[in-house]
Every structure is written in C-alpha cells, then in structure tokens.
Amino acid sequence: MKDVWNRIENWLDKNSPAMKEGLMPGATGDQILAFEELVDVKFPGDVRESMLIHDGQSDLANPMLGEWQLFTIEYAMQDWKLMKELYDQGKLAAPSQ
C-alpha cells in the first residue's frame, strides 16, 4: 500500500499539489481499532495500511475522487453512528443483498 500511496503522491505533486496538501497524516492503530469495534468489522490489511498512511482528507481539501472526498476515521465514525441511529429508528431501509 505504501507503493500505491507513493505513486498517488508523486502524481499529485505534478498535477495537483494543493490536493496533496489536503491529505491528512495517518491514523493511529487505536483509531483504526475503535472504528473496527464500532462497525463490528475487521478491515482488510490493505485498508488498515492505507489508513495508517493517510487518514482521509482535511475538510477544506478539494475532493480527490471526482466529487468524493476521502473521509477521516472520525468523520466516517460520526456518519456511521448517524446512519445506524436512523436505521434503528426505522427511517432507513435495510441494504439489499
């Protein structure tokens, strides 16, 4: 995953330095563990490694994926809690499988 992020960062250096500046430092192992415990999922190794390299983008950063911004763990946890609460209240349908 480090090689993948190096390639992304090298491309950003040449094509969008401001976007690179918006990448957050890596998350801590404790932050990742807290997220996994919250959502009751063990993330694959590549996902964990990516989070250790960059914990999403700053709130003011240009979106990295079209109109999509990379969430920080903190933001993703807040969003998950909100969606779970709405689901538990019957305000969201169960995901189709």
Q: What report would you give on this structure?
A:
The chain is mostly helical and 97 residues long. Helix content is 57%, strand content 0%. It has five helices and no strands. Helix 3 runs parallel beside helix 5. The model has no long low-confidence stretch (mean pLDDT 93).
Give a brief description.
57% of the residues lie in helices and 0% in strands. The chain is mostly helical.
List the helices and strands and how they pair.
Elements: H1 2-15, H2 17-21, H3 29-39, H4 45-53, H5 73-88
Helix pairs in contact: 3-5
Number of strands: 0
**Which class of secondary structure composition applies to the elements?**
mainly alpha
Strand content: under 5%
Tally of DSSP helical segments: 5
Give the oligomeric state of the chains in this entry, treating copies of one chain as homo and distinct chains as hetero: single chain
> What percent of the residues sit in helical stretches (DSSP H or I)?
55-70%
Unreliable stretches (pLDDT < 50, length at least 5) are none
What is the straight-line distance between the termini?
29 Å
Mean pLDDT: 93
Overall spatial form: globular
Please outline the major beta sheet: none
- The SSE order reads HHHHH
Computed CA radius of gyration, to the nearest angstrom: 15 Å
Keywords:
97 residues; mainly alpha; 5 helices; 0% strand; 57% helix; globular
